[in-house]
Write a structure and sequence with these properties.
The protein is mainly alpha-helical and 172 residues long. The chain is built from eight helices and two strands. It has one domain.
Amino acid sequence: MKQAWDIWGNVVITALSAVPVAVLAVFLLARRRGRAGHPDPWRTAAADVGALAGTAPWVWMILTPGTARGVTLVPLADLARQLAHLPPGAAFVQVGGNLLVFAALGALLPVRSARLASLSAVAGVAAAASATVEILQYGLRLGRVSSVDDVILNTAGAVLAALATRRWWARR
């Protein structure tokens, strides 16, 4: 865990420091939408800012340079290798981190929009976003492993987070 903090602590500190800015952004966006006659300005403003603020730090982490480069296209092969060869704490950070990457997006998309208020819509958006990030990792030669397992875990995390917010989903 100390190694994860040493590598990513600055991202966590920056993300937490941005919380007051995010709260201000919700307030200003909701006020602007309210003046424009939007039917639910606070709900959509909070969902928009929350999805962005909850996803951006993870994407920043994913797109920072690393030391290993490769592509793993066989489903669950990379995950099995990590679970077999990494210490339990490191494996937990890897799997847990991948589940959290698009969790805010998955939790708040269906709250924001009735068109996205289904598990299949959340899974589709999360899978597309995750695949885009994996392609960027490879294409930008960031020294990171682009893996189909990351797409699977990122998507699963978004869907699980969507299930947690189902009670507040926008109505059609």
